[in-house]
Amino acid sequence: FIIEDTRHIIREAAKKSCFVCCKMGASITCCETGCDRTFHLPCAPDGECVTQYFGVYRSFCWQHRPQQALQPCPSQDNTCSICLDTVEDKISYKTMGCPACQDARFHRHCIQRLALHSGIAFRCPCCLNQELFMMEMLTMGIRLSKRSPPWESDEEVGPSHQRHGRCDAATCHCPRGREHVEANGPWQLWLCSSCAAQGTHRHCLSLGNTTCSWECNTC
């Protein structure tokens, strides 16, 4: 029955065109009653569509997607709390905010990357609220990994209260080994600015003196 259902879905999708790219084979339909917009999952970001990756996995087109109800905050400086680049001055598909503190703003792609990396420890990067924040992000279409975050893995970084203390560059050039760290100079250890679960000696990745941050390949 599962195989036959899958074949039926494929046959039906072949008849439908994606409203974003206009190509056939769109298998996702907006779940709003009376809306017949269909789209490919990879086209969803360009069409500003939302798919909720929990419960019954509902999908919405740009017109019927859920909207965040956040009040403008006078202290908001229009800076993404994650990458520190500029965000829009209003809440939109690409610019999201925290429902708990009402102040944090971030790009959708930044919070999505943080969600996949943080796993079940996903929370607001500013106020650290978890329950309200996580439910809001899931509703707004952010996909969450169900794994434990890397910094809580004994195999990767040891106990969560310990600061990462070794060079993880593919080739470590320090003559005293990966564990050797100095306060300044070529053997100063830089931690990933996003997860703090990976590190590198400044010299091992040729990080110049003007470098302010570094991100590992995972982030």
What does this structure look like?
- InterPro entries: EPHD, PHD-type_Zinc_Finger, PHD_PHF7/G2E3-like, Znf_FYVE_PHD, Znf_RING, Znf_RING/FYVE/PHD.
- One of its GO terms (molecular function) is ligase activity.
- Residues 80-127 form the RING-type domain.
- Keywords: Ligase, Metal-binding, Zinc, Zinc-finger.
- This is G2E3 ligase.
- The chain is largely without helices or strands and 219 residues long.
- The protein folds into three domains: 7-60, Herpes Virus-1 (2-Layer Sandwich), CATH 3.30.40; 71-150, Herpes Virus-1; 164-218, Herpes Virus-1 (2-Layer Sandwich), CATH 3.30.40.
- It is 15% helix and 9% strand.
- It has three helices and eight strands.
- It has helices spanning 2-13, 108-118, 131-139, and strands at residues 28-29, 38-39, 50-51, 59-60, 95-97, 105-107, 189-191, 199-201.
- The strands form four sheets. Strands 1-2 form a two-stranded antiparallel sheet. It has a two-stranded antiparallel sheet with strand order 3-4.
- The longest helix is centred in the first third of the chain and has 12 residues, at 2-13.
- The two termini are 40 Å apart.
